[in-house]
């Protein structure tokens, strides 16, 4: 869980500043979130002011054909948008690529500037430079309003599209593949347990390993194993898994010759649904692989790290504990890698690199869950679309902006990603409390005051007394106990308070379900509550 | 047939508008940045782009979540006929996994005119669900799953949610899951696997009365062009109404209304009441109608009960209150009588009734609901010995005494003195 108090506060500051001026907010955001990349701000921020200076710096030792053509290309920018075979991008876009050569966490600014300048000066002939320029040939601007492009982007970022190559999980996949191939070669049985937080690519890697295993078996000339995938949530009752496995075995024994019984690979997803009180099903499942003539490789997937230790102690005594492979939560670099891999196929850049990095940092700090990162990216694209729709409604601004500005303005920028992140991570409690009717706010205020003295719960009667006192201090007539109880029930429905059960209404236990600090923060806009809760 | 009174026609039109939720919430559909447009964008983009989505609608009860969803679905069914099919589940009825799958199968069969078998097992139903999702994905038809009372689906192992959201992760299916809940932390109740698959889109339905309510009232109350209404009547009605709605008094009434409950359904009830109070002879709404509707919405049943009490009953209630203040352990009719008898000792008054008269008055108080027995244990005993408790608060009693037409001054003194 990210720290709730700093992140929303930081974002609200950014939001306020964005309303005042664009450039100011970008710098503030950069200084807060992207310290090592402060060099970017110098080169990539306001295109209007900085670009001429930087391009002048770069073009001074000019005499090279590529830069000249680049300069010549700029007036044709308006044609580039719809022309997929168009040529290169503007010099402005060069800098993020260049600086990426250096490591993000380095060192003094000067060195990085020097490195950028050096590689930019080393224009024709250097191999890395050629590759970069080739990359730039493909990259161009995209129009968020065009439907086919939008659809392609959404599809690239959607959860259901499995990317053709799964990056950042090579180690784990190789480990699993080695284990399986060893078992198949030696015709032995074995069990493997894959664990990791949700959204770390376990099921995706399993799918890839299955394909890789069949390929390997075909290459080696070995009988490829029969694969049985079960998702344990679909089982009506626990022992069904055995009937499924046995039906698979029976099928294979009837189709192949007895000596040719191939190895069976059983992939059991969401293994913790099989946990029962006496742990018999799980235990038996893993024992399948320890039988003397068994040919079954069991790959179990779950979230708990210590499933094998906690729930199958007997296996340890029999010395056949399953091998454990942990899929760690994604780090920031891995998330950036994966997102770029997905977006690589598109001929245009959708995200500004800083925006991608902000998203990756926040998601990595929170949970390392790739699904969230994808959801944030899609949400940010929607913000961009909404903004562009509003600006087109506003009128002719677009045509008057210089062409280079148009291009960066069509990318997803930091403030879009920041808004998307706040939508995902912010809890709606503060907003709801702000818009509650007055008496319900007074009830919450009196509850906070009551619980400040260290108590954890109280009865409705006590709360009523505090409530009446608070009302008396502002000359608002308090409502009766019946209406108070129904208002408390409404708050309980919403999940802000928690009401217990009791025969008598006055004796029902009341506890706060949200943090008192959230309530104080939400109510501080009203002077009365501010004084009351001081 | 005589000419109908245009005021009656107007009243009829307005009342039928208030009772129609689709009309009321169509006001919100005209606002550009409202929840209606956001929800419509989410569902229509998943229909046209063939991608899966999930969204959660949160807000207090009565703020219009289901009504806006119905409006969006109706509009989308008109725009894209035959491309959307809706399955509705409710957490109060279908929170059990087996039950929910059966209901999904039943609704899908009904829509596509397939044969539904009640004997189908859980396994068959879940296979049916997966194959339906696949077929609809191939046919480019989006299934919208509406889960009302979403927080009740999160009890237990959340298998239904997991299987629905997991099926949405595959390319072959095309579905939208819309959860409607009044709990703000509904997504925190999800298990971590299910939460990871849920897309974290939340639409908050926050009510902000005041400026919003004035425009909503205008939308509902202004008379439209109708053949049954003469034009000049309509024009004068609308003009007077606009003046009232913009005035300060109306704002005061609305503020008082929103002190305890500011949801749209509460405001609609208020408007209905006000329109019912409309005076047919004058032919238009007046601010008095709104003011008289307010107490009938914000009823105080205990105050009404107090108004009907006799003076002796008020004495008994005050004696009970004094006993409570003195923190007397056992409060039953005998102790109340003792307190009552002690009053003439400290104050000179001639109001002294016999015991059986007081008992009669006490039984009336029990029947009215101002006083009740503490528990159901002593049912065999007579009314005099069973312990009783007060059902109204000090403040309500004081308010009742003040508004009582002929309350003796002594009672006020007794209330004020705390000893």
UniProtKB/TrEMBL annotation, chain A:
It is found in: Nucleus. Residues 444-523 form the Cdc6 C-terminal domain. InterPro entries: Cdc6/18, Cdc6_C, Cdc6_ORC1-like_ATPase_lid, ORC1/CDC6, P-loop_NTPase, WH-like_DNA-bd_sf, WH_DNA-bd_sf. Residues 50-107 are annotated as: Disordered. GO terms for biological process: cell division; DNA replication initiation; mitotic DNA replication checkpoint signaling. SMART domains: Cdc6_C. Gene3D superfamilies: 1.10.8.60, P-loop containing nucleotide triphosphate hydrolases, Winged helix-like DNA-binding domain superfamily/Winged helix DNA-binding domain. It holds the Pfam family WHD_Cdc6. GO terms for cellular component: nucleus. GO terms for molecular function: DNA replication origin binding. Keywords: Cell cycle, Cell division, DNA replication, Nucleus. Belongs to the CDC6/cdc18 family. Belongs to the disease resistance NB-LRR family. This is Cell division control protein. It comes from Salvia splendens (Scarlet sage).
Automatic annotation (TrEMBL), chain B:
Residues 216-400 form the Origin recognition complex subunit 4 C-terminal domain. Residues 48-172 form the Orc1-like AAA ATPase domain. Belongs to the ORC4 family. It holds the Pfam family ORC4_C. Its main location: nucleus. This is Origin of replication complex subunit 4. InterPro entries: AAA_16 (IPR041664), ORC4 (IPR016527), ORC4_C (IPR032705). One of its GO terms (biological process) is DNA replication initiation. GO terms for molecular function: ATP binding; DNA replication origin binding. One of its GO terms (cellular component) is nuclear origin of replication recognition complex. Keywords: ATP-binding, DNA replication, DNA-binding, Nucleotide-binding, Nucleus. Component of the origin recognition complex (ORC) that binds origins of replication. DNA-binding is ATP-dependent. The specific DNA sequences that define origins of replication have not been identified yet. ORC is required to assemble the pre-replication complex necessary to initiate DNA replication. It is found in: Nucleus.
């Amino acid at each position: 869980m990210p720290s709730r108090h700093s992140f929303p506060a930081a974002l609200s500051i950014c939001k306020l500043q964005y309303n005042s001026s664009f450039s100011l907010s970008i710098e503030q955001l950069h200084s807060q979130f992207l310290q090592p990349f402060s060099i970017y701000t110098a080169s990539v921020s306001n295109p209007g002011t900085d670009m001429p200076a930087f391009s002048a710096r770069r073009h001074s030792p000019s005499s090279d054909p590529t830069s000249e053509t680049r300069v010549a290309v700029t007036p044709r920018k308006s044609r580039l948008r719809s022309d997929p075979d168009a040529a290169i991008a503007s010099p402005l876009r060069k800098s993020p690529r260049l600086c990426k050569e250096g490591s993000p966490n380095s060192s003094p600014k000067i060195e990085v500037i020097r490195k950028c300048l050096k590689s930019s000066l080393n224009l024709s002939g250097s191999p890395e430079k050629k590759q970069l320029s080739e990359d730039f040939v493909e990259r161009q601007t995209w129009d968020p309003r065009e439907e086919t492009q939008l659809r392609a982007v959404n599809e690239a970022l959607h959860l259901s599209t499995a990317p053709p190559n799964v990056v950042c999980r090579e180690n784990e996949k190789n480990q699993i593949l080695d284990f399986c191939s060893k078992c198949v070669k030696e015709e032995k049985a074995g069990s493997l347990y894959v664990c990791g937080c949700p959204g770390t690519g376990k099921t995706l890697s399993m799918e890839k390993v299955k394909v890789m295993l069949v390929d390997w078996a075909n290459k080696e000339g070995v009988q490829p194993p029969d694969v049985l995938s079960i998702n344990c949530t679909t089982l009506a009752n626990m022992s069904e898994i055995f009937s499924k496995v046995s039906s698979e075995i029976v099928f294979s024994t009837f189709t192949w010759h007895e000596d040719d019984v191939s190895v069976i690979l059983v992939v059991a997803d969401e293994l913790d649904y099989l946990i029962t009180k006496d742990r018999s099903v799980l235990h038996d499942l893993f024992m399948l692989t320890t039988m003397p003539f068994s040919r079954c490789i069991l790959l179990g997937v779950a979230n708990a790290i210590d499933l094998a230790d906690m729930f199958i102690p007997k296996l340890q005594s029999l010395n056949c504990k399953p091998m454990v492979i942990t899929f760690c939560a994604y780090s920031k670099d891995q998330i950036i890698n994966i997102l770029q891999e997905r977006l690589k196929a598109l001929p245009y850049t959708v995200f500004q690199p800083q925006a991608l990095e902000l998203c990756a940092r926040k998601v990595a700090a929170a949970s390392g869950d790739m699904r969230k990162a994808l959801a944030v990216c899609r949400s940010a694209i929607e913000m961009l679309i909404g903004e562009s729709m509003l600006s087109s409604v506003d009128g002719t601004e677009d045509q008057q902006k210089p062409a280079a500005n148009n291009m960066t303005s069509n990318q997803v920028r930091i403030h879009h990603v920041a808004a998307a992140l706040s939508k995902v991570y912010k809890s709606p409690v503060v907003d709801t409390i702000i818009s509650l009717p007055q008496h319900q706010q007074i009830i919450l205020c009196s509850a906070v005051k009551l619980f400040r003295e260290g108590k954890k719960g109280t009865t409705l009667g006590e709360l009523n007394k505090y409530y009446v006192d608070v009302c008396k201090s502002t000359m608002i007539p308090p409502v009766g106990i019946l209406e108070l109880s129904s208002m408390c029930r409404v708050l309980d429905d919403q999940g802000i308070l928690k009401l217990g059960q009791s025969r008598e209404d006055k004796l029902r236990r009341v506890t706060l379900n949200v943090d008192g600090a959230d309530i104080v923060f939400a109510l501080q806009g009203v002077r009365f509550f501010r004084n009351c809760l001081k | 047939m005589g000419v109908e009174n245009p005021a009656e026609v107007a009243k009829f039109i307005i009342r039928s508008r208030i009772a129609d939720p689709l009309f009321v919430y169509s006001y919100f559909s005209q606002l550009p940045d409202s929840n209606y447009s956001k929800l419509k964008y989410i569902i229509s983009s998943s229909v046209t782009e063939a991608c899966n989505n999930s969204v959660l609608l949160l807000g207090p009860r009565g703020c219009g979540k289901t009504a806006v969803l119905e409006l969006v679905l109706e509009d989308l069914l008109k725009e894209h006929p035959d491309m959307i099919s809706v399955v509705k589940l409710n957490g109060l009825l279908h929170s059990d996994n087996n039950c929910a799958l059966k209901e999904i199968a039943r609704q899908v069969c009904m829509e596509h005119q397939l044969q539904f078998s009640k004997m189908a097992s859980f396994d068959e139903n879940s296979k049916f669900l997966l194959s339906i999702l696949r077929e609809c994905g191939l046919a480019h038809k989006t299934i919208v799953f509406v889960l009302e009372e979403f927080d009740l689906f999160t009890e237990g192992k959340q298998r239904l949610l997991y299987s629905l959201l997991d099926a949405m992760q595959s390319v072959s299916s095309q579905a939208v899951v819309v959860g409607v809940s009044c709990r703000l932390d509904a997504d925190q109740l999800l298990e971590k696997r299910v939460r990871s698959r849920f897309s974290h889109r939340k639409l908050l339905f926050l009510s902000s009365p005041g400026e919003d309510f004035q425009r909503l009232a205008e939308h509902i109350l202004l008379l439209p062009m109708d053949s049954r209404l003469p034009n000049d009547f309509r024009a004068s009605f609308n003009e007077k109404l606009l003046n009232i709605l913009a005035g300060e008094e109306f704002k005061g009434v609305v503020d008082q209304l929103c002190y305890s409950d500011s949801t749209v359904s509460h405001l609609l009830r208020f408007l209905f009441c006000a329109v019912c109070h409309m005076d047919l002879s004058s032919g238009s709404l007046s601010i008095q109608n709104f003011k008289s509707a307010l107490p009938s919405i914000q009823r105080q049943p205990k105050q009404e009960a107090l108004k009907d009490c006799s003076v002796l009953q008020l004495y008994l209630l005050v004696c009970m209150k004094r006993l409570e203040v003195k923190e007397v352990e056992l409060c039953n009719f005998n102790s109340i009588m003792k307190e009552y008898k002690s009053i003439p000792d400290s104050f000179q008054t001639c109001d002294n009734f016999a015991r059986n008269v007081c008992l009669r008055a006490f039984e009336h108080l029990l029947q009215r609901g101002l006083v009740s027995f503490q528990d159901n244990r002593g049912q065999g005993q007579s009314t005099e010995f069973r312990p009783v408790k007060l059902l109204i608060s000090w403040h309500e009693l004081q308010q009742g005494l003040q508004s009582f037409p002929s309350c003796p001054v002594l009672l006020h003194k007794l209330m004020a003195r705390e000893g």
